[in-house]
Amino acid sequence: MRRSVLRLFLIISLKVASQAEDFKHISFHKADSIAASHLGATLKSIPKLSFLLTKDLETDVEKLRSIFMWITTNTSNDHSVYEKNKRKRKQFKNNAEKLQKWNRYILKKNLSKLLKKKKTICTGYAYLLKEMCAHINLQCKIIDGFGRTAGLNTQQLAQPNHSWNAVLLNNKWYVCDPTWASGITNPNTHKLDVELQKGYFLTQPELFIKNHFPENLKWTLLQNNNTTFDSFLEEPLVYGAAFQYKTLNRIPKKMFHTVTKKERIPFHIQPLEPAAIDQVHLMISTKREHNLIVPKNLVVDQKNIRFDHKFLYRGFYDVHLMIDEKVIMTYVFEVKK
Question: In this predicted structure, what is the pLDDT of residue 100?
Answer without folding.
Answer: 66
